[in-house]
């Protein structure tokens, strides 16, 4: 028993809160009945260890939980048409020409490219790019989208669409754009 409340209540609270829902939880307890283990796992624990246990077993279970909880590795190279972004080298290019971006525009483009063809509201972009702990105006997104379009240049900027009343998306399905090649 924890001081003040049970581990079950604490686990449920942590799982319900957006800031703590992804923190791994391992319950260490003297209660080893099947019903107790099931209740602990149902409350949100990633693992449940009954006393007595060895240090080696505890460490092995911690490693196992961390392996299961490790974030998926996002691809370092993302390509959409002629636009490419390499997160490992922090390089962006359009039609093999380098594109210079500020750190926020880079993160914004990276998020949009790894979640292409989907419409993202300003508040979603604020949470995903700036983080949910930052309190800034939603119109800040508009400023950074404008900067991103300017940096991408006229030909690439059409990939970044404003979806009226909904937000922004990046797409290779640009409408109304006609590509004209110079006569040979």
UniProtKB/TrEMBL annotation:
Transmembrane segments: none annotated. Residues 1-66 form the Response regulatory domain. Residues 74-172 bind DNA. Keywords: DNA-binding, Phosphoprotein, Two-component regulatory system. It holds the Pfam family Response_reg. One of its GO terms (molecular function) is transcription cis-regulatory region binding. InterPro entries: CheY-like_superfamily, OmpR/PhoB-type_DNA-bd, Sig_transdc_resp-reg_C-effctor, Sig_transdc_resp-reg_receiver, WalR-like, WH-like_DNA-bd_sf. PROSITE patterns: OMPR_PHOB, RESPONSE_REGULATORY. Residues 74-172 form the OmpR/PhoB-type domain. GO terms for biological process: regulation of DNA-templated transcription. PANTHER family: PHOSPHATE REGULON TRANSCRIPTIONAL REGULATORY PROTEIN PHOB, REGULATOR OF RPOS. This is Transcriptional regulatory, C terminal family protein. It comes from Rhodoferax antarcticus ANT.BR.
């Amino acid at each position: 028993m924890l001081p003040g409340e049970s581990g079950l209540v604490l686990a449920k609270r942590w799982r319900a809160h957006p800031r703590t829902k992804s923190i791994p939880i391992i319950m260490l307890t003297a209660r080893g009945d099947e019903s107790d283990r099931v209740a602990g796992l149902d409350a949100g624990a990633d693992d449940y260890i009954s006393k007595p246990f060895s240090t080696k077993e505890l460490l092995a279970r911690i490693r196992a939980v961390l392996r299961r909880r490790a974030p998926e590795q996002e691809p370092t190279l993302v390509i959409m048409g002629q636009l490419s972004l390499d997160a490992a080298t922090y390089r962006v290019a359009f039609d093999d020409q380098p594109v210079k971006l500020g750190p926020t525009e880079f993160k914004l483009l990276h998020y949009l490219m790894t979640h292409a063809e989907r419409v993202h509201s300003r508040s979603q972009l604020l949470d995903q790019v700036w983080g949910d702990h930052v309190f800034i105006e939603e119109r800040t997104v508009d400023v950074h989208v404008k900067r991103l379009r300017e940096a991408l240049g006229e030909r690439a900027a059409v990939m970044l669409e404003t979806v009226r009343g909904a937000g922004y998306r990046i797409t290779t399905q640009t409408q109304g754009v006609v590509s004209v090649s110079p006569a040979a």
